[in-house]
Amino acid sequence: MADEKRVAIVTGSSSGIGAATAKRLAGHGWRVVVNYSKSEAQAKQVVADCIKAGGEAIAVRANVAQDAECRKLMQAALDKWARLDALVNNAGTTKFVPHANLDDLSAEDFQRIYATNVIAAFQMSRACAAALKKTGRGAVVNVSSLASFLGTGSSIAYAASKGAVNTLTLSLSRVLAPEVRVNAVLPGVVDTPWMTQGYGEERFAKLAATYRAVAPLKSTCSPEDIAETIVWLIEGAGKVTGETIFVDAGMHVATPR
């Protein structure tokens, strides 16, 4: 029946990992809320791609750092399809600052990064909890980072925020059980415009080359690689909750240099 088709919200899904996840879910017949904060044109393109893939989709603008916007986003899913089966907390931000440059990070930088990376994931999970529980088999996937484990990445504030996401995942997996499973994926270096713009093309190319040389699987990741695991955590993995799963070509077990 049409009304039994499953519904997902993917935050920050106008590009990168979020867009890849939305399109993969759509390809599996899901209805998807494509969330964006700035790039309406990109979000509409993702919606078109989702429909082409065989699913249904709508684009909803919302700044998930704001609680009222999170509730608006949740309500958009219910107003359109009257159910919610999965939430992917993918929206994220950073400031690209070498870790040694302590004076280049301010309290305001931390507050802005935590608002989007941590508080938003909490607020979205809270807003969606009742609807997810109603299905009896809801799923939340938080997009964390290898940086949370290694203390690396675009900045100290970013790495710390993703460490907080991991802890949030553990807490939510307890309080939303047994109706809702909550897990996190920890991507390594992913080839996205966000990375090339942040680091600059030349610097990112060097970073990626070094990563491939060190990682056991000798590769970086694509957004589709991450989306594959996210969708598996949503559709399968029926007895998996509270997990933080690395999708990093094995970098977290690489021999230290």
Regions with pLDDT < 50 over 5+ consecutive residues?
none
Compute the CA-based radius of gyration: 17 Å
Strand line-up in the sheet with most strands = 3-2-1-4-5-6-7
CATH topology: Rossmann fold
Assembly status: single chain
- How many β-strands, per DSSP? 7
CATH class: Alpha Beta
> What is the beta-strand fraction?
5-15%
Instruction: Tell me about the largest β-sheet.
Output: 7 strands, parallel
Round the mean pLDDT to the nearest integer and report it: 95
CATH architecture annotation name:
3-Layer(aba) Sandwich
Q: What portion of residues is helical?
A: 40-55%
Order of helices and strands: EHEHEHEHEHHEHHHE
CATH superfamily: NAD(P)-binding Rossmann-like Domain
Distance between the termini: 55 Å
- Overall shape: it is globular
Tell me the structural class. Answer: alpha/beta
Whole-number total of structural domains = 1
